[in-house]
Hints:
This protein is an all-alpha fold. It has ten helices and no strands. The protein is flat and about 55 Å long.
Amino acid sequence: MARPLADAFEILVQVEQLGPRLEAAATALAQLADTAEEQAWLAAARKRLEGLSVKPDLLARALRLPELVAMKAERGKLLQIAVADEVERLQAAVTFAGGAQSPLLDTLFLDFKVPALRKCSRGELEKFCIEIERRLTSGYAQRLLANDRYKSVQPTVLTLRRAIGVWADVFVAPPMHDADADRLRVELLEATTVIENPVRQARLLAQAALLPYQELFDAAGVLTVAGKKKAVSDSHPILEKDPPDPLLPTAAERAEIASLHAPRASA
């Protein structure tokens, strides 16, 4: 029986997401005692993903197939988060280069009511993208970006524009039909055939490693609240959530911070 294209698409999406989530799982597990075996299983899971890759544009092109139209909204939401991440990196890069009072920061964001980019509507994000591009292409912003002080910001601008373009293409690329669509279907299924077993093995190894630690939790919120059991057994909450910020404090660091803020007894 031929594999449904939607299933093939989901497997390829997992390749994007699973690597960072396994990294997060390894970081969380390393903080627990007596987990050498489990850490080795997670290392094996991460090794199964080495060398696996998907053509950068394959998922975007696949969404042009009539069978995958229903996947556009979900894919768009994932890419919307990527746009939000790049906006935050741009703000940080400008602040690092020019300080909190940077004129470039004012040019790009002063009096700009930025929506909650991770969860705003498509229309709101479109308006934001148009406005941020208008500000980036203003004469003053261009002059500042050409200055030596802000040259380090230029790659961040390019990355943001690329993220916006990838997100927008999900909705504006025309449908694909006939022979071109047939070739794309074959390409999608062939890519899945190569990737499916290593990805499933990686998930099963991770499931084995994390099985004794269903209640594993840290300040970064690595684990989600346990939901309904699914028919597929190679799943675990830690694999269903985006990885945490690596700069968030560990349990030991939180204890240290708490001690620094604890009231001191009078001498």
